[in-house]
Specification:
This protein is of the alpha+beta class. The chain has two domains: 160 residues, DNA methylase specificity domains (Adenine-n6-DNA-methyltransferase TaqI, Chain A, domain 2, Alpha-Beta Complex), CATH 3.90.220.20; 186 residues, Alpha-Beta Complex (Adenine-n6-DNA-methyltransferase TaqI, Chain A, domain 2), CATH 3.90.220.20. Strands 2-8-5-6 form a four-stranded antiparallel beta sheet. A hairpin with a 7-residue loop joins strand 5 and strand 6. Helix 5 packs antiparallel against helix 10 and helix 7 crosses helix 10. The chain starts with 17 loop residues before the first strand and ends with a helix.
């Protein structure tokens, strides 16, 4: 391996790769523009007109234009008609997005398009994507507001000498991208399925039985207060600085809905009492802070980790309530609205104190049905986790 050959290569290909500037691989380059939105005759035509928001990050193939312009709009603006199989590169708002366009199109002023390519077009888009992403990562933490046309066209990529090797590589990554997009589609469908089941498997407001039930369960659900089935306590305060110490912590920022396990964030030198140690099946509920964090919930599946402040610990009464049933129940609740109703006027942040949380109404079926429901949502979460 040297600077002109890759570490891994498809069988049958040899020889050095060539360094090329982007201006050398494109016979034509095009900028873009926006027809006046005040002139109706410029819009809703047959020409696809793309803007940065039409491109998805890290997806170089699938672009669905939301807007179209007319030939009159094309003629009376700075945008240009670009031939199919060109590479559209975002150079202003949304730098880092790149896409291969399989149809004729025009763009906003946020793009430079490489057209009439003398290398494989799919290989080109992967190379440009890799180049721009590597430069973005190299200056991580710095906001890149744009790339000039001159800067873009002078960027150098490495290209195999034969079109056959270019196509072999681009096809390899195309199959990967198809699998990734398929998984993304499955993931979104699973999330929507979960949302639908949450609405059907728990009773609606004012009702005592759900719309959808597992076979063999017919009894009415019983109304309870949350405080009747769980013990609610606040988290360990201790040393608020995350030092290198013996005791691991978790706090509001480590909780997110839909994730069962909680990331361990740091350490504390303050020694917590046993009451702050978590047990498997304990539920953590973020009771304070901004709307971004209020009402987040997660089940803990490990041991001996102290709770940090800003989190309520819900320890369940055995045989009274199933952990995953209660977890799923919390996902049906409007935490933002709950926080507004029970806002702590003494502080500037939204909060839900233990007394208020203990009065939360909860409809629950028999313990056996709770377990059935909990297992169902646990399995859905595991499938979602595998695809995430």
């Amino acid at each position: 391996m040297n600077e002109k050959t890759p570490e891994i290569r498809f069988e049958g290909f040899t020889g050095d790769w060539e360094s090329k500037k982007l201006r050398e691989i494109a016979g034509s380059t095009f900028g873009g523009g926006t027809p006046s939105t005040l002139v109706e005759d410029y819009w809703n035509g047959d020409i696809s007109w793309i803007q940065s928001s039409d491109l998805k990050e890290h997806d170089v193939i699938n672009v669905i234009p939301k807007k179209h312009i007319t030939k009159t709009g094309l003629k009376n603006s700075a945008t240009k008609l670009v031939s199919k199989n060109s590479v559209a590169i975002v150079t202003r708002v949304g730098v880092g997005k790149v896409a291969l366009m399989p149809f004729e199109y025009a763009t906003s002023q946020d793009f430079i398009s490489l057209s009439n390519l003398n290398i494989d077009s799919l290989f080109c888009v992967y190379c440009v994507y890799k180049k721009i992403q590597s430069e973005l990562h190299a200056v991580q933490g710095t906001t890149i507001k744009g790339v000039t046309k001159e800067e873009l066209l002078n960027k150098i990529i490495q290209v195999p000498a034969t079109i056959e090797e270019q196509q072999k590589i681009s096809e390899f990554f195309r199959v990967f991208d198809e699998d990734i997009n398929l998984n993304k589609t499955k993931l979104e469908k699973l999330k929507e399925l979960k949302k639908g089941y949450l609405q059907q498997i728990f009773p609606k407001d004012g009702e005592s039985v759900p719309q959808l039930r597992f076979e063999g369960f017919n009894d009415d659900w019983e109304e309870k207060k949350l405080g009747e089935v769980v013990n609610i306590s606040s988290g360990f305060m201790g040393d608020s600085t995350l030092k290198d110490g013996e005791y691991k912590l978790t706090r509001i920022e480590t909780i997110s809905n839909g994730i069962v396990n909680i990331e361990r964030l740091g350490f504390s030198n303050s020694k917590p009492n046993e009451q702050y140690k978590l047990n498997a099946g304990d539920i953590l509920y973020s009771n304070i802070n901004s709307v971004e964090h209020i009402g987040k919930v997660a089940i803990f599946n490990e041991y001996d980790i102290p709770v940090y402040h800003g989190i309520n610990l819900l320890r369940l009464e055995p045989t009274k309530i199933s952990p995953y049933f209660l977890y799923a129940f919390f996902l049906t609740q409007d935490a933002d609205n709950w926080a507004k109703i029970h806002a702590n006027k003494a502080i500037s942040q939204a909060s839900i104190n233990q007394a208020d949380l203990s009065t939360l109404p909860l409809y629950a079926p028999t313990f056996e049905e709770q377990q059935k429901i909990g297992e169902f949502f646990l399995n859905l979460d595991e499938q979602i986790k595998l695809l995430s």
